[in-house]
Amino acid sequence: MVQATVSPALGNAAVGLLAELTGARAAVVMGGLFCVAATLVVAAAFPALRHARLTVPSESSKPAEASEPSESSCEAPANAADDAGHADAESPVKGPAR
Question: How far apart (Å, rounded) are the C-alpha atoms in residues 37 and 35?
Fold first, then answer.
């Protein structure tokens, strides 16, 4: 979680500093070149990524238990909470705190 919140701020600070030192146009060009260079480094380090394909599994490769659910599997268990969110006394599922 910290990486997701700190990384953009660090990137903005680095680009701001670079733009201050070299100018906005040069910072944009260098940033683009850095992205291309980083892509080439990752492609060289992980050659399997160059050959990876995103495909949808065919019907024959799906497991047998992944077939269409039966109507009975869609029914709620007998001890499930009712529509108002209240649970039965025996149910381990509790409704919302009131």
Answer: 5
Q: How many domains does the chain have?
A: 1
How far is it, in rounded angstroms, from Cα 61 to Cα 67?
12
How far is 31 from 62, CA to CA, in rounded Å? Answer: 44
Structure tokens that stand for 68 in this block? 């269409």
Task: Indicate whether 72 belongs to any domain.
Answer: no
Global pTM value: 0.46
Residue 90 lies in a domain: no
Averaged confidence pLDDT in the chain? 75
Six-digit token pair at 75? 């029914």
Distance of CA 82 to the CA centre of its chain: 33
Structural contact between residues 91 and 81, judged by C-beta atoms closer than 8 angstroms: yes
